[in-house]
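re the bet — no i am not wrong, look at it urself. input seq straight from the record:
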Amino acid sequence: MMNTHEAHASYAINVNTHYAPLERIDIQTLVNACQDSWYNQTLSRINDCVVRLGIMQGVFHWHKHEMEDEFFFVLEGRFLIELEGQTVELAPQQGFTIPKGVMHRTQAPERTVILMIEGAGVIPTGD
């Protein structure tokens, strides 16, 4: 099992906004090019929120976001969200919102592609 420091080293997290307003967002091109086992790319900023693409396989560490809610929407694969006392499994075309302050850990048992919507100030690895 990875400790938090080792886990963070294996995450490819890109908080720079990849697409400008009025620019077509091409998720499939990013998915096809991705070689990382845990990839996170901010696609676009909308007011005070961002839309992020996640391409992943494996387990993320336990964390929470003190000030912001987080929304996950699955495009491909299977996505598990562990909460204290329960696990929620999402299939393609399903979404789930984690309220601020709730400890959670996400995992993808197979290569999975998701979209996340959250406040622009959210630190993807948690507070």
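see?? The chain has one domain: 4-119. told u. also The beta strands are 12-14, 38-46, 49-59, 70-76, 79-83, 86-90, 95-98, 104-119. so pay up
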